[in-house]
Design goal:
heterodimer, A: about 110 residues, mainly beta, six-stranded mixed beta sheet, five-stranded antiparallel beta sheet, about 0% helix, B: about 110 residues, four-stranded antiparallel beta sheet
Amino acid sequence: GENVEQHPSTLSVQEGDSAVIKCTYSDSASNYFPWYKQELGKRPQLIIDIRSNVGEKKDQRIAVTLNKTAKHFSLHITETQPEDSAVYFCAASRQAGTALIFGKGTTLSVSS
Amino acid sequence: DAGITQSPRHKVTETGTPVTLRCHQTENHRYMYWYRQDPGHGLRLIHYSYGVKDTDKGEVSDGYSVSRSKTEDFLLTLESATSSQTSVYFCAIRPELNSPLHFGNGTRLTVT
């Protein structure tokens, strides 16, 4: 089955800096890659997703890149703000599959 | 909240007792999921359903069973709860394949 590795497990940045979180997946048939943000005590919420027919997607300060050959995808947050502090999860879903498998999460801390 | 209700929100139970968690959706979506969240492990898939009476195992299904007799309800049962099943349990729904998951608010289960 699919296995998703996520790095780093913790990331501390200064306000205004960029943050990058990386994930690798094992199943070459995976074709859907969402990212979720979870604030303390709350449910995970989707922030951006990308499908395998696209190499990059951007939404304001957030961008995701996908390298299907290397089987890895990354989340980029620019101009970080204290409210970006949260746990971020990547996930992968195989083509026509129903299971969505998550990485173990990255705790991002943005200090002002 | 994407029309998802989890009940109960909190439960404390004793080792060896049966426990059933309920996920109710109002969106009539086909796909429903149960995940557990533990520190250091992220979100791990327990079971999922792709229709009434159609379910499949996830990554950590041992000790859990599920039932889906109606589109709107997906039940997770711990036949004989153990302390290792102390966790936060999230239900999620998915409108279609390769679309985002929408999570419920979670159930915090403590097994003493």
